[in-house]
Write a structure and sequence with these properties.
This protein has about 450 residues and is α+β, with helices and mostly antiparallel strands. It is built from 15 helices and 16 strands. The structure holds adenosine-5'-triphosphate and magnesium ion (MG). The site of adenosine-5'-triphosphate has 21 residues, from β6, β10, β11 and α11.
Length: about 450
């Protein structure tokens, strides 16, 4: 029987031709988060299953249907379905919360959820996320939301809406749960199986049910905003004031409850309508009870996560700009073993100085080597044969213009090549400026 060597359903290969897009998102997200005082954290791919049961919540879809769990030597482990639980666990275990607050960390990681694969919904997907622990102030909510917004803006994303809501604290939620229960109790027969259980244990989860019938029923359900206690109400008002002051447009959407149980007070989503049903590119909120729930002190915290695949789908659709992939700076075409050895040595030195240098590793003839260099988009090419070795100099050809400059093959080769390279870069910058001026002129 043939071995199944296809990738599992719901996973994706990220190929070299696309990886610059990932680098773009990662670079911008990192730089933005760091400018807000966040540092990177890296956590394990799997954790004890109990961590997710306790934090994400036993009545959530994630825990009930989507976790990849293995039992190894009688212990249950789960591939992380999200990054918050593991991050908070790591902060607690390593004593970060005893240091200066707020603690601010970001992460880029893959998550695993057993969902029905479709565009923008994978079984292994990637998140950029962050958590801030220590502040209960609404200014922290504004800070985290404006950080997410800055990332989306710097990525050049358009037509993304911000929805915010408050789902209150345990005090206001007790009253709200009562109201929800009596509302759903009256239409219990129409609810799906899972929602029957939710009605008992956690009626707010019904609002997040994906079944069309349940969704229809939730339309007229009581809204949490009418049940907020004074503190939660004030917190939400302040947040709205700060966002307005920052010129961040938002809509209050009382239907947002988020798919994870640990949220309190502020929840938010950035949503686009351009990529169909999987339009939430970023989701987050406050989770003031989580740290205590996981055995730590009572430390308020909040965060968000962005789905990188979804961001890229939107960016592709909107023809966004990406960082240009690095091409080969210089390719050495060689004839004979001595020339090859020389190319090896010079390439080695150039690489030490950060240049991308290549030479033939395929035993190709000179013509085929040049063809390859062309295909690679090499900026410069150099032919080294017996003549060049004898004369002690080579001609460095700029591929775009065909211009050639002779450079001695001595210990100044690298320095001379660098000035050539630098000139070329300066010239193309000037060209760009010229082009900019011309087009600006046209627009005037
Ligand atoms: P959705 O409602 O779309 O299922 P969610 O509420 O489950 O999202 P979160 O747990 O908050 O999502 O995860 C944060 C972000 O991660 C989402 O906004 C989305 O961009 C991304 N994401 C979540 N699940 C998937 C998935 N299966 N495939 C790809 N991206 C995902
Ligand atoms: Mg989900």
């Amino acid at each position: 029987m043939a071995v199944n060597v296809k990738r599992p359903n719901g996973t994706e290969d990220i190929l070299p031709k696309d990886v610059h897009k990932w680098h773009t998102v990662e670079k911008i997200a990192r730089e933005t988060a760091e400018s807000f005082g966040f540092s990177e954290i890296r956590i394990p791919t799997f954790e004890n299953t109990e961590l997710f049961m306790r934090s994400v919540g036993e009545t959530t879809d994630v825990v009930q249907k989507e976790m990849y769990t293995v039992t190894a030597k009688e212990t249950k482990f789960t591939l992380r379905p999200e990054g918050t639980a593991g991050t908070i666990r790591a902060m607690l275990q390593n004593g970060l919360l005893n240091e200066a607050l707020p603690q601010r960390v970001y992460y880029i990681l893959s998550c695993f959820r057993h969902e029905r694969p479709q565009a923008g919904r994978l079984r292994e997907f990637h998140q950029f996320g962050l958590e801030m622990a220590g502040s209960q102030a609404p200014s922290a909510d504004a800070e985290v939301i404006s950080l997410a917004k800055s990332i989306l803006d710097r990525l050049g994303l358009k037509n993304i809406e911000l929805y915010i809501n408050s789902i209150g604290c345990p005090t206001c939620r007790a009253k709200y749960h009562e109201a929800l229960r009596s509302y759903f109790e009256a239409r219990k027969d129409e609810l799906c199986e899972t929602c029957h259980e939710r009605l008992e244990k956690n009626p707010m989860r019904i609002l997040d049910c994906k079944s069309p019938v349940c969704q229809e029923i939730t339309k007229d359900a009581p809204v949490i905003l009418d049940y907020l206690c004074e503190e939660c109400g004030d917190h939400f008002e302040k947040l709205k004031k700060y966002l307005t002051g920052l010129n961040i447009d938002f809509k209050v959407n009382p239907k947002i409850v988020r798919g994870l149980d640990y949220y309190t007070k502020t929840v938010f989503e950035f949503v686009t309508t351009e990529i169909g049903a999987q339009g939430t590119v970023c989701g987050g909120g406050r989770y003031d009870g989580l740290i205590e729930q996981l055995g730590g002190q009572k430390v308020p915290a909040l965060g968000f996560a962005m789905g990188i695949e979804r961001l890229l789908i939107v960016m592709d659709k909107q023809n966004s700009e990406f960082l240009t992939p690095r091409t080969c700076d210089v390719y050495f075409s060689t004839m004979g073993d001595n020339a090859l050895e020389k190319a090896m040595q010079i390439s080695h030195e150039l690489r030490e100085f950060g240049y991308r240098a290549e030479f033939d590793l395929m035993g190709r003839g000179i013509k085929a080597q040049m063809k390859y260099a062309n295909k690679m988009g090499s900026v410069f090419t150099v032919v080294i044969g017996d003549n060049e070795l004898e004369n002690g100099s080579v001609r460095v050809k700029e591929m775009e213009t065909g211009n050639e400059v002779e450079i001695a093959l001595d210990d100044k080769f690298r320095a001379n090549f660098e000035s050539l390279y630098f000139n070329k870069m300066m010239n193309s910058l000037e060209d760009d400026e010229l082009l900019n001026n011309l087009t600006n002129g046209e627009n005037k």
